[in-house]
Amino acid sequence: MSNEKKARKQRVGVVISDKMDKTRVVRIERLTQHPLYRKRIKKFVNAKFHDEKNQAKEGDKVRIEETRPLSKDKRWRLVEIIEARKE
User: What topology is assigned to 10-83 in CATH?
Assistant: First the structure.
């Protein structure tokens, strides 16, 4: 066995809630194709992620990474804030 770590999943999304302490909710969007009609459809999933310094604010575009379970719902952590919200 090699000592290399397996690459962790990363996702990009927009923060939709920053009301909790050290936890944020991000909306991750993906495009899929309808199996019969072949139309592209937007699908969304909301994920909670850990933000140790409470940096991410509502409306920010962020990159999150998969990690061990931190609580009942939190399985992601903040990697970087890609773009701050536009005021």
Answer: OB fold (Dihydrolipoamide Acetyltransferase, E2P) (2.40.50)
At 1, the pLDDT band (50, 70, 90 cuts) reads: low
- Label the pairing between strands 40-50 and 23-33: antiparallel
Domain definitions of the chain by residue range: 10-83
Q: Whole-prediction pTM value? A: 0.86
Q: How far apart (Å, rounded) are the C-alpha atoms in residues 38 and 27?
A: 24
Residue of 27, 29, 31, 30 lying closest to 14 (CA atoms): 27
Ranges of beta strands (E only) in the chain are 10-17, 23-33, 40-50, 61-66, 76-83
